[in-house]
Amino acid sequence: MPKQLTLFIIVCFIALQSSAQKINTDSLWHIAETSNNDSLRLEAINRLFIHYTILEIDSNYQFNKRFLKLCDKLNTPRYKALGIILSSTVNYRIGDLKTVQEHITKASEIAEKNADAEVLFRIESVRSAIENDPYKKIEHLRKSIQYRTKPPIISLGNLSSAFLSVNQIDSAFFYAQKIYELSLKENVVLSSFVTATMGNVYLKMNQPDIAYTFYKKGIKWAIPTQKNDDLLRAYIPMANYFDKINQPDSALYYWKKPFEYGPKEAFRAKLNASKKIYDYYFKKGNNDSAAKYMNYYIIANDSINGANKVIQLQMAKFEEELKQKEIDKVKAEDEESRNHNIQLAITAIAILSVIILFLLLSRSILVSHKVVEFLSVLVLLVVFEFINLLIHPFLESITHHSPVLMLLGLVAIASLIIPLHHRIEHWTSKKLVEKNKAIRLANAKKTIEEIEKSNI
To answer: What is the pTM (predicted TM-score) of this model?
Structure first.
């Protein structure tokens, strides 16, 4: 598990290489939250992500909360997708792979719709990290580097490791050599990762002397940085190397490095190492030391599980908050849409009423009864829709969203409106007949007068 976690942390969101100086999180957050330069913002987020992921899980959780707020503020498809991906790291660390997969699917839909190569690159990197099938892992890594004109060293290094896991040594060596050359050319700080990759390939090729040379280079390059993660990335492969060539005493020296360089709370770094040290002392019959490191193992395991449970509760609460925010957002949009529709209904009623009144009151236009009847039916429908929009929230609250009760409520409203409509329709018909008679009588009189005048 620790090895998989380390891989996930590295490949999830490939960061720009961190400097050896202490990271200034306040400055990076300021850039992430205020910069108008998208590339600069992405760089700041990458650095922040790596910083918080290396720390304990609660720090990672707090980073995710703040970043998701930033995503809401930016309100763009890119950062919405990135927010979904980054939030999945906590789920990964507590073993909730189902949620991780759901997050990836959501982010992928957004990124594909917007053809965002940057986000798609990260999605394929995450997929490779959580994939157990080594051949599918290779497929995802290959896809990820296709989205970058200049693939990151870590992506190429993980592709080398994936090929190594299926004994495709030529391909593994090709990518390992490539990242080694790039590392020398660009003076990359992640050299301990590069040398470990090269060493692992040579060890698999049964050339332990060359592998040892690279592992030593990794330690030599890591020491000046004085960064715990760089040092552990260099020492752990050396411990594996001596364990592989059956030199347990030398392996023990390097297995103890996490206890020397790792902070007291770095339980994940110490978990695997304490188990290896316990095995060493148990075989030697040194029960006191064996018990000591088994105790470390138990404490680390319990601490990780305990922290995971706390984070699970926090995540559940956080996800509930996000769901509530989404519900509130949908409610606000529905309310805005409802108000807009009410305004349209009022406008339609006013226009149709004015037209009907104009036709009824006009002394020069003969109007067919069917036209007024048609317009009155339109008014009836619009009025019904207006009343429905107006009382819909009230109906929902008293009926508790029951479709049957809501239908009965609307039928009751219709039973009140229809008789009123019939009365108005009867009145308009009467007025229309009187108006049409008056117009026809006036026209007849005018015609008779014209005829009389023409006969004189």
So the answer is: 0.57
